[in-house]
Write a structure and sequence with these properties.
single chain, about 70 residues, mainly alpha, elongated
Length: about 70
């Protein structure tokens, strides 16, 4: 019984280690991106957010009428 528990513990730890390394390095064994790539992606994301905010300001959401029976937008 003790041997079975030890075997399952080692097997579970090995599977967890395998999944963790696979997730961390990806499918191709590539390490995480360096500082410059992360910085470029962050700047691109901020530009996209600025565009989204500008679009939301220029095209506000139109709400429905307060009346239950009137289903038209204002």
């Amino acid at each position: 019984m003790i041997l079975l528990v030890l075997l399952l513990t080692v097997l579970g730890s090995a599977v967890l280690l395998f999944i963790t390394t696979r997730f961390y390095w990806g499918d191709r064994g590539k390490p995480l991106p360096d500082r410059e790539i992360r910085k470029q992606k962050r700047e691109e994301e901020l530009r996209m957010r600025e565009k989204q905010i500008e679009h939301a300001k220029n095209n506000p959401v139109t709400s429905r009428s307060e009346s239950f029976w009137d289903n038209t937008k204002k």
